[in-house]
Write a structure and sequence with these properties.
Blueprint: E1 4-6, E2 12-13, E3 49-51
Antiparallel strand pairs: 1-2, 1-3
């Protein structure tokens, strides 16, 4: 599973960690996160994230 970064603040969504404080369980792929999820740091919408090239 790939990591995604917020283009606004630089937060990195790591699917291994998820975002349990906001209802996203560890192991959740980015494409499976609900569309109304927002960046836990700056509140940017999911559309402001881009895939991290590793």
């Amino acid at each position: 599973m790939k990591k995604y970064t917020c283009k606004i603040c630089g937060y990195i969504y790591n699917p291994e960690d998820g975002d349990p404080d906001n209802g996203v369980n560890p192991g959740t792929d980015f494409k499976d996160i609900p569309d109304d999820w927002v960046c836990p740091i700056c509140g940017a919408p999911k559309s402001e994230f881009e895939e991290v090239e590793e």
